[in-house]
Amino acid sequence: MKLPKAEAMALRANEISPGSASFEDTYAWVLYESGKYEEARIWIEKALSHGGNSSGVVIEHYGDILYQIGDTEAAVLEWKKALELADHSENLEQKISEGRLIE
């Protein structure tokens, strides 16, 4: 993966179109994949506040980020919220039942 390039491109997309939950989620996920979990949390929370709270994918990503920063209890709560929506990963139920990240 070319994460530095993806990070630059995702940041640019947010500069061009601020307040887009989809772009903010993408940037958060690139930061997550780069191990920048605290920065990812800031951006995923922006995505949630700009309409991402109706997306199972965005909410699941939030749970994954929370898990990586050590807040397992909050992560499971977010995964449960994501489960109520249609668009989430196939392994979401396993994450919830095991209380751990499943990639």
Short note summarizing the structure:
With 103 residues, the chain is an all-alpha fold. It contains six helices and no strands. 70% of the residues lie in helices and 0% in strands.
Question: Which characteristics define this entry?
Answer:
6 helices, 0% strand, Serine Threonine Protein Phosphatase 5, Tetratricopeptide repeat, 103 residues, mainly alpha
SSE layout:
Elements lengths: L2 H14 L4 H13 L3 H13 L6 H13 L3 H12 L8 H7 L5
* Shape label: globular
Second CATH tier, the architecture? Alpha Horseshoe
Q: Runs with pLDDT <50, length 5+?
A: none
| Ends distance | 16 Å
Largest sheet: none
- In percent, how much strand structure appears in the residues? under 5%
Fourth CATH level, the homologous superfamily: Tetratricopeptide repeat domain
The CATH class assignment is: Mainly Alpha
Helical residues, percent: 55-70%
Count of DSSP H/I helices: 6
Pattern of helices and strands: HHHHHH
Overall domain count: 1
Write up what this structure looks like.
This protein is mainly α and 103 residues long. It has one domain (3-98): Alpha Horseshoe (Serine Threonine Protein Phosphatase 5, Tetratricopeptide repeat), CATH 1.25.40.10. 70% of the residues lie in helices and 0% in strands. The chain contains six helices and no strands. It has helices at 3-16, 21-33, 37-49, 56-68, 72-83, 92-98. The protein starts with a helix and ends in a 5-residue tail after the last helix. The mean pLDDT is 96.
